[in-house]
Amino acid sequence: MTVTISGSTGIAANTATQSIDLPQGTTAQRPASPANGAMRYNTTLNQTEVYSGIAWTILSSQSVSASYLIVAGGGAGGYSNAGGGGGGGTLAGSTSLTIGTTYTITVGAGATGGSSSGSGTGNNGSNSTGFSLTAIGGGGGGNVTGNGASGGCGGGGGSNGTTGYTGGAGTSGQGYAGGNGLGSNSYGPAGGGGGASAVGQTAPSGSQAGGGGAGLSSSITGSSVTYAGGGGGGCNIGSNATGGSGGGGNGGINSGTQSTAGTANTGGGGGGGAGTATGGSNGGSGIVILSVPTSQYTGTTTGTPAVSTSGSNTIMQFTASGSYTA
């Protein structure tokens, strides 16, 4: 039951919900000559506002608590006797979203594998952004003549059979360094790419390249999923190096085992190549996930995120760039 309060205009007491219903309207519908202290709910801004005598002012800051996971694109494996790509940098935590504000989300692409036409070093993955935060793309794996690149997680170092090159550094709070290649061995085993929760493995022996570092497990969607594993290193002859948990690709062997790409939308690093027949593989694309209380979910998104519920929360999984308005 709604009862108009005596002496008021446009304000009603709702006895069914024990609340007062304020006048509602868009910004364009604000009164032309409001009285000082006039109060209304602005449906354009999703905020309560009051007229101060000079301008309409938001009465109080209104926000909603949210959890996020931001994973950048994975780095790619290098071309020959090459390190695995590093996993995409990963950020997880909670934030306050201001009601009525639109948050732009960018999902980083996975990097392209090293090729014989270039330096042979794997490329770095692209950054993912959201909520004023940036996750750094994974570092590319080093080639037969070079170090792994720094990134969210570092790329593994290459090997030329005489010199083992150094893995790239990870970004503090986002991922770990790549492993080193092993020198003094004609097989040229390379290092694994770093993962979001562990360093890439340094090549352990002359016939074994280093495996990719493990990724980070998250249950933000309601079930446990691992993201941003490093790619395994490649070597000329010997045993295959596996990628790290969380989408890391496997390294290649020049006898005919092709390296594999990082898994899409995990930020996994690509496997390192072994030579002419088995070049480096691409990194996996990233992902941005946002979880908000279902009671405060607005449904206003762009970019067609996958939307699901878990318990009392609504989860948006962005696999391509888009936005959410709180």
Notable features of this structure?
5-stranded antiparallel sheet, 4-stranded mixed sheet, elongated, disordered N terminus
Entry summary:
The chain has 326 residues and is mainly beta.
Q: What integer is the average pLDDT? A: 90
Cα gyration radius (Å): 26 Å
Main β-sheet description: 5 strands, antiparallel
Q: Into which percent range does the helicity of residues fall?
A: under 10%
What is the first-to-last residue Cα distance? 30 Å
Numbering strands along the chain, what is their spatial order in the largest sheet?
Answer: 9-8-15-18-17
Classify the secondary structure makeup into a structural class. Answer: mainly beta
- β-strand amount: 15-25%
Domain tally: 2
Low-confidence spans: 1-9
DSSP E strands, number: 19
Task: Characterise this structure.
This protein has strands spanning 2-4, 12-14, 19-21, 24-25, 39-42, 47-51, 56-58, 63-71, 90-98, 102-105, 128-130, 133-135, 216-218, 225-227, 287-293, 301-302, 306-310, 313-318, 322-325. Mean pLDDT is 90; it is low at 1-9. The chain has no helices and 19 strands. It has two domains: 2-58, no CATH class; 62-326, no CATH class. By secondary structure, the protein is mainly beta. The strands form six sheets. The chain has a five-stranded antiparallel β-sheet with strand order 9-8-15-18-17, with no helix packed on it. Strands 4-5-6-7 form a four-stranded mixed β-sheet, with no helix packed on it.
